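Hey, quick one: can you model this chain's 3D structure?
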Amino acid sequence: MSIQTLFGILFLLGGIFQAFTAILIYQGHKHYILKIANRKVGMAIYFIFAFVLFFLAYTNLV
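Sure thing. Here's the predicted structure for all 62 residues.
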């Protein structure tokens, strides 16, 4: 397994966990981001971060 494939898998797992966190914030669970921003902004931040991680996973796995 090459290092590039390993990074792709790690970025993919990170994106999945960030998307899961955004979904939990949407459902109303407490999170430290809610001390800084409201729920919609917190969800947007986590979805953008998840999108960036999915993009990095795509570029490393293809």
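One thing worth noting: The longest helix spans residues 3-27.
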